[in-house]
Amino acid sequence: MDFRELERDNMGRCRLNSPVPAVCRKEPCVLGVDEAGRGPVLGPMVYAICYCPLSRLADLEALKVADSKTLSESERDRLFAKMEEDGDFVGWALDVLSPNLISTSMLGRVKYNLNSLSHDTAVGLVQHALDQGVKVVQVFVDTVGLPETYQERLQQRFPSIEVTVKAKADALYPVVSAASICAKVARDQAVKNWQFVEKLQDLDTNYGSGYPNDPKTKVWLRKHVEPVFGFPQFVRFSWRTAQSILEKEAESILWWQHCA
């Protein structure tokens, strides 16, 4: 994966994709959708799709893809490399959503919650595949929120495609497992190579898993809170964990408007 665009600007969103295999423009394809990094207070959330012809689904299954959460980092990297090698029939695309984008969306005057952001990102990736000429006829999605509501929305958006939304789809459908691996590999790489826009003294990159209940993550947050400006943009400041630390460690600021 080429993350140079993300490294140049990690304040918004970044889309990456593989070349589209020629066979995917000719034969009916199945497409899976999954994400990585929905829960952490640190780093981006990554949404991914993976697709292949229905006629080659058995070949994808033969790779022994699985839910990325059940695999070690080395196993995920190996499987992603294998999917790259099999680029004649497997394609992928992903959206990297920065912590800054997530936080400003959730805290804006017009609220844009994480579920809506997730749904819209998934829709955008499916549409991206269609725009690239992939002959998508089936879509399998790991749910966010109620699967029935999510499935109905996707089915209305893509009426000619058979849509299935289920909890734990990444463990049920190999094409969703493959998307899960793409998303997790991308998030791990983005976090590991994160370019901090702030000039931080004594930057500690030992921030643990990034999840709110991780003691290492909590220590890192308390260490890198700035009393006036808050956290580096690596932090999702809309998360309650971050807000609680700001309330305790940061200075209170009173905003007022002078009227002439």
From TrEMBL:
Catalytic activity: Endonucleolytic cleavage to 5'-phosphomonoester
UniProt cross-references to InterPro entries, sorted A to Z: RNase_H2_suA, RNase_HII/HIII, RNase_HII/HIII_dom, RNase_HII_hlx-loop-hlx_cap_dom, RNaseH-like_sf, RNaseH_sf
EC number annotated for this UniProt entry: 3.1.26.4
GO function term, MF aspect, one: RNA binding
Entry keywords, A to Z: Endonuclease, Hydrolase, Metal-binding, Nuclease
Pfam hit, one: RNase_HII
Biological process, per Gene Ontology: DNA replication, removal of RNA primer; mismatch repair
Top-level division of the source organism's lineage: Eukaryota
Binding site for a divalent metal cation: D34, E35, D142
Cross-referenced SUPFAM superfamilies: Ribonuclease H-like (SSF53098)
A single GO cellular-component term on record: ribonuclease H2 complex
Cofactors required: Mg(2+); Mn(2+)
Domain RNase H type-2: 28-251
PROSITE patterns tied to this protein: RNASE_H_2 (PS51975)
Enzymatic class: hydrolase
Annotated cofactor note: Manganese or magnesium. Binds 1 divalent metal ion per monomer in the absence of substrate. May bind a second metal ion after substrate binding.
Subunit structure comment from the entry: The RNase H2 complex is a heterotrimer composed of the catalytic subunit RNASEH2A and the non-catalytic subunits RNASEH2B and RNASEH2C.
Function description: Catalytic subunit of RNase HII, an endonuclease that specifically degrades the RNA of RNA:DNA hybrids. Participates in DNA replication, possibly by mediating the removal of lagging-strand Okazaki fragment RNA primers during DNA replication. Mediates the excision of single ribonucleotides from DNA:RNA duplexes. Endonuclease that specifically degrades the RNA of RNA-DNA hybrids.
Family statement drawn from the similarity comment of this UniProt entry: Belongs to the RNase HII family. Eukaryotic subfamily.
Protein's name in the database: Ribonuclease
Lineage: Eukaryota, Metazoa, Chordata, Craniata, Vertebrata
